[in-house]
Design brief:
single chain; alpha/beta; Aspartate Aminotransferase, domain 1; Aspartate Aminotransferase, domain 2; three-stranded antiparallel sheet; 16 helices; globular
């Protein structure tokens, strides 16, 4: 059992000029604004019907507050925009690539860096190479694109989060952890030679944006190395995870966020990162590896599917912005604002009686739709019902993370529900102000009344993989 520093609502970090104040101010000034088009309730009803009750199919100008995802939705800084002007668009060996590569090598310590246009491209390359029938991948929780890229090869993806992960109200410091007892058992049952990789996602997105402790990462690393199993970090929110480690895990309270991240990278054999999250950019990702042979094989696939090895689907402008963003994301003022502003939304919702995963994670608030609409059976997708009501009431776009996203069917085509029925309110980085969040709270306040009258949905069309992106629905009854 590790010693923890438990604190859900921390004070400002030591030495901050704002220490002792309750108000969370954005550590930036607004220089450019993007207009939001306001819509009426009647317009939103028509828009949602035309989108077949799937908010992915809405147009952006039909949305007031977009909490669908925090991926690629960040506002870039003035330093990032300035760096983009220096973009070297040479096909091979661009100076912009050198800056990006050097920054990633400095952070991760890995010898081989493969640039990709986003994280799922890196997943497709690595898991496409390692996967196939008879192969098993194990994770604290595979996210949707990770699972799809693995299962597309014919391999199986198994989730083994710690038991506390599904105890929605329990105040556990590291609900994102992987169950190491189950990991040892699975490796023994499947055979180490059949394990494609063990993937530790930090933070655990599908598990409520919950952090992973360094102690858990160390234990996973030791198990993998003793069994000669590949250990990969899904590191797209590693800066946010580092914040929680410093806040809650004994021995890390005086370490920098970047040093904590580098230590976690040192435990793994490689990493995949969507830079559209903690890279603070709108496009980009990478695959980083230690092994020369594995890197060479993946580089061949990169060149075939993404682009040359020194740009991988990215422009020089993108790579310049990434090199800056990977520095800015570890700024203490930024990280404190990021985590606390997300927690503010969750704390206020909880106080008004909205059921949600506790404690609040780093990038999003996860509402327990099964409890919010307790009268709607899981077969009628209560999470999708809440997603639609949020849009109809206030033009807020969110995403279901439950049996629409992760549900499967048995042999008789009966739904096998997901472990939890959640709705994620993902907060874009450096985009929305306090008044936007107050509006979201007011919408929820209105949804609490008359919620027993809301009806569920059934699916009328779904693709084979990642069905939540393109599925169509109709309201039951």
């Amino acid at each position: 059992m590790i010693s923890l520093i438990l604190q859900q609502s921390p004070a400002w970090h030591l030495g901050s000029v704002m220490e002792g104040f309750k108000t969370i101010i954005e550590p930036f000034k607004i220089k450019t604004v993007e207009p939001i088009k306001m819509t009426t309730a009647e317009q939103r009803k028509v828009f949602l019907e035309r989108a077949h009750y799937n908010t992915f199919l809405l147009q952006s100008d039909q949305v007031a507050i977009d909490l669908l995802t925090d991926s690629g939705t960040s506002a870039m800084s003035s330093d990032q925009w300035a760096a983009m002007m220096r973009g070297d668009e040479s096909y091979a060996g661009a100076s912009s690539w050198s800056k990006m590569e050097d920054e990633i090598k400095s952070l991760t310590g890995y010898a081989h860096i493969l640039p990709t246009h986003q994280g799922r491209a890196a997943e497709r390359i690595l898991y496409g190479y390692l996967g196939g029938k008879g192969r098993t991948f194990i994770s604290n929780t595979h996210f949707d694109t990770t699972r799809a890229n693995i299962e597309f090869t014919g391999a199986e993806a198994i989730d083994i989060p710690v038991p506390e992960a599904t105890h929605i109200l329990e105040n556990h410091a590291f609900k994102g952890n992987l169950d190491t007892v189950k990991l040892k058992k699975l490796i023994s049952e499947k055979g180490a030679e059949s394990i494609g990789a063990v993937i530790l996602t930090v933070t655990n997105n599908s598990g409520g944006g919950q952090p992973v402790s360094m102690a858990n990462a160390k234990e996973v690393s030791e198990i993998c190395r003793s069994n000669n199993v590949l250990f990969i970090l899904d590191a797209c929110r590693i800066a946010e995870n580092s914040y929680f480690i410093r806040l809650r895990e004994k021995g890390y309270e005086n370490k920098s966020y970047r040093d904590i991240a580098s230590e976690m990278f040192s435990l793994a054999d490689g990493a995949i990162m969507s830079l559209k999250k903690d890279g603070l950019v709108n496009m980009g990702g990478f695959l980083a590896l230690r092994d020369d042979q594995l890197s060479a094989a993946c580089t061949e696939l990169l060149i075939v599917t993404e682009g040359y090895a020194t740009y991988g689907g990215l422009s020089g402008r993108d790579m310049e912005a990434i090199a800056v963003g990977l520095k800015e994301v570890f700024d203490p003022d930024y990280l404190h604002y990021r985590i606390r502003s997300t927690a503010y939304l969750g704390e206020r919702l909880r106080n008004m009686g909205v059921p949600l995963i506790w404690p609040i994670g780093g990038h999003a608030v996860y509402v327990d739709a099964r409890s919010f609409y307790s009268h709607i059976p899981v077969e009628q997708y209560p999470g999708q019902a809440l997603v639609c009501e949020l849009y109809l009431m206030g033009g807020i776009r969110s995403v279901e993370i439950g049996s629409v996203m992760f549900g499967k069917y048995d042999e008789s085509h009966q739904l096998i529900p997901a472990p939890m029925e959640l709705v994620r309110l993902a907060i874009p980085r450096r985009v929305y102000t306090q008044s936007h969040i107050e509006f979201v709270l007011e919408v929820f306040e209105k949804l609490l009344y008359g919620r027993e009258k809301v009806k569920g949905f059934e699916i009328t069309f779904e693709p084979r993989f990642l069905r939540h992106f393109m599925a169509r629905f109709r309201r039951v009854g």
